[in-house]
Amino acid sequence: MIRKGRATVTEVTLDEAGPIHALELWDAAGGDAIAAALGHALPAAGRSAGIEGRQVLRQQPLVWLLDGAGFDPAAIALALGPHGALTAIGGGLMRARLSGPGWRAVLMHDGVFDAEQAAFGPGCTAATIIAHVAVTLHVIAEGQCEVLVPASYAEPLVAGWRRVAAGLA
Amino acid sequence: MTGPAARLTRPLVRFRFDGRAYEARAGDTLAAALLANGVTLVARSFKYHRPRGIMAAGVEEPSALVTVGTGGRREPNTRATDVIVYDGLEAFSQNAWPSLDLDLGAVNGWLARLIPAGFYYKTFFGPPRRWMIYERFIRKAAGLGAPPVEPDPDGFAHRAAFCDLLVVGAGPAGLAAALAAAEAGQRVMLVEQDARVGGALLRDPVTIDGMAGVPWAEAAAQRIRMAGGRVLLRATANGYWDGNLVTVVERLAEPGQAPGASRLAQRLWKVRCGRVLLATGAIERPLAFAGNDRPGVMLSQAVRGYVRRFGVVPGRRAVIATSHDDGYRTAFALAEAGAEVVAVLDGRATPEGDLVERARARFPVFAAARPIATRTSGHRLAGVTAEVAGRTQAFAADLLAMAGGQTPVVHLHKQAGGELDWDEVTQAFVPGPSRQGQRSLGAAAGRSVLAAILAEAWEAGGGAARDFAVEDPCGPAQPAAAAVIPARLPGKAFVDFQNDVTLDDIDLAWREGYRSVEHLKRYTTLGMATDQGKTSNMAALARLAQAQGVAIPQAGLTTFRPPYTPTTLGAFAGPAVGDHAGPVRRLRLHAAHEALGAIWLPSGYWFRPRAYPQPGETPGEASLREARMVRSRVGLVDVSTLATFEIAGPDAAALLERVCATTVGRLAVGRGRYTFMLREDGLVFDDGTVWRIAEERFLLTSSTGGADRMAQHLSYVRNVLAPDLRVSVVNLQEHHCAAALAGPRATAVLERLTGDAAPLHMHCHRTAIAGTAVLVLAASYSGERAFEVYAPGDRIAAVWAALLAAAQEAGGGAYGLDAMDHLRVEKGHVVVGAEVDGRGTPADLGLGGMVRKAGGFVGWQGLQRPVLADPAGRRHLVGVESLAGPLPEGAMLVGRAGDEPQGHVTTAAPRVAGEGWIGLALLRDGASRHGETLHAWSATRGLDVPVRIGPPLFYDPEGARYRD
Lengths: 169, 964
Fold this sequence. Notes:
heterodimer; A: alpha+beta; Gyrase A, domain 2; Alpha-Beta Plaits; 6-stranded antiparallel sheet; 5-stranded antiparallel sheet; elongated; B: alpha+beta; Ubiquitin-like (UB roll); FAD/NAD(P)-binding domain; 7 domains; 7-stranded mixed sheet; 6-stranded mixed sheet; 26 helices
């Protein structure tokens, strides 16, 4: 935890990502079917939808991430039918959580995405590159952002963020 | 504004120069501090070792280059004008021996006639062996300061930033523009290379809207911050790239200074901007006359800056040499500070105006006057000889302030692709049409009247049109007419002070036929020093234009390249140094391998276990023991780094048939097959296996090293070549981790753990190990019965532990990459990066029989080209057997040492089953040369080993060991 005076600037934690599935759709009917199964529409580009433990993140034009243990993959696959494919990917991801007012500045280091733009707020997602590593950002709250990181890169990447966060203090 | 009296109110700072202790005042540059201490001799020049002092006050300083700091923080060739003094600063002069005061290198000055411009090209020629001699002297003479030997102990960061408007330069124009934009709600970033905002306001006592210039500047910066703008000081915009990307180097610590808590010395900002306003100011031009490089000869505005900003008076008896009104401002500043202005030499025939008249009332002003020579006493300026209306006149003086015109700083404008226009009045290039989102303001745009500059900048920032009330005790500034360079000058009149290029050198180059400015530059080294000709290029162009009989714009212009000012390599490297020079990828099982005593091998970005040596074992002994363990009992190896892709959907088979050169689409569920992939030119670029794990779902594995390339290839095929297919391709290299169990006891180990019958060779099934669902693929790389066990990465540890314990119980254990390599060489299995080097066809690698005859895959058309279809003369995969000791990997295959190579050894290994050394090789027409004896020759290692060529298979040719 990095503190400036008495305030936490940025705290960075790292955990297993847990169950995550990649959902790819090949047609609009698939979107309707999944929306019906989820109980809400699939989020638009750069956005997430859902509740805690059942978050849907749009990652590519036709790919969404189903993030959380609250999903029933079998039921989703059944609803999906011939309209797309569902593939488990969570075993390869770690979840970094950056908390505190400095998280935006931390993610600007070694990256190319504008994490400081005001519009990038809670419910926003971005697939980008930081320090040569493909990551997915998900703003959870104004002061918190989750980053899905390939497991093999996670430790040095998070160590770098902690180093940067220390420099902000 | 400080002045000499206010200077004393600033805190004391202590520093050392050439080992001697001095005191400075907080906020001083090193140059200001040295001048305040009466130190005028600061450096020796590059070529002639002439004594040099401080000429400028900013980054354009060509002469006062020093080394700052010690150990890993030592920074050579640092401009004394661009270092803010801090407590404990240590600076050293450079290019002088045995001392700065008495430098034996100054003998070069006496030998000047022997080393004119281009002497390098006239002297160092002849046969290459002479260069072995020349090189020693050239290297010794090259450069000024010495680079540090120790690693830099500090950190460097890279950071992105985005803004609607980037303003470069926090002088009055930049501040007005940034303030207008920030208060209009734009995302604004303002960067200033100095430690203070204000620019010219720091040296000229103007008021803006009733407020003194410096407080106005500081208040403006504060308002910008309050409006959400970002203001960076000690931040130099050093490059303007495509797409309105500007790089900015921010100094967080001064050269040689230990950084603060962040431990960062510098931060490189990559700023992507909507618009860029360039308020980069202008650089004053020196005058050309004999001895214009003496300590005590300075730029006029720099003198004013030292007096008014730092409270330092660089001389007590001053001569002002000017070509325009601005020089008079310096005369008044010096007089206010108590110096005596002994003469104002105005190059104009009839200078006039209010400021000139006021000066005439206070100082001796001479029209049609210019300096022609200087004299020194003890390396300090002692006198100036001038030509006044055609007659020679001498003045005793210890300071000469030159005002030879202004050169707008157009570097970033040009780097952005902008064009230049020519301003006849000021004889200067000014920014012309832009190519990107840049616009120049203020002095950088050739403007001189402050009120107009502020109004224009305010509007450029997005503010509504308004006027600024500016009061200037010297009256509105006038355009700065440039000094005329005389046709003939006696003595050494320097143009490029840093590379010791004189007007005579330019004239000589012209006489020797160098007509182009680009040739002139390279022949004389003009503008090629670390200052990139900031103070020299215009004078040289003027001289070249004189010789050509054309106007300056017709003489041409050299290229403005980034970086604008010298940039430390650390800023470019950022955090990518040492172990972090590239990303590091850690295995999920890293800790488990560590616990087994693994020694590590970099494999791409991965670190993989090379071997697990037992006490007293060398790595080679360990890997051979491990390989023999696999041949005789059972071994377990981590293959988690293999590229794996899940390909799902009704068209999954169709996609794979496009990607793979073998028949894979008709695989039954639960079956797998070896395959390989071609580039579009028909050459093999990777290999792997395909498994049908469900009716519409396949698993494709390929090499570790080619994983990213394969991902890119699959994306290309999926999205470009076959966008209509209903298929999903997901890269699971990170999701899947895998352990390969191999050896004659592997089946028993697996069956005991799972309770299921092991799958047949090239079959797969799902089962569970240690409570974790796993996918088992029966495939052999070692040549023994083997299984790859796949589990999600977050659950692989338990699976590995169970497999390892069972393997150990069966007399086996873990093995590393080296053992795996030994095993696969015996079986003649190719590996990407060695045998698969991007130059072989399937037939070259002995895989021609597997190619799908019907085609339809990437590379099929390329493969039909005669040059690939005809095997004659191509390099074929062969086996090589050493006839005398270890086989050197990478060695050339030759008839005898020194002959033209016919191929090379791609991999070498000790025999696992047996003794001696074997290897794989690519050999011209190798398929028809089995039985031949050649030499594996390595000239660099001095090795020459006779080898016998044979088929690339040394073990179990029937494949009985891995079949069921």
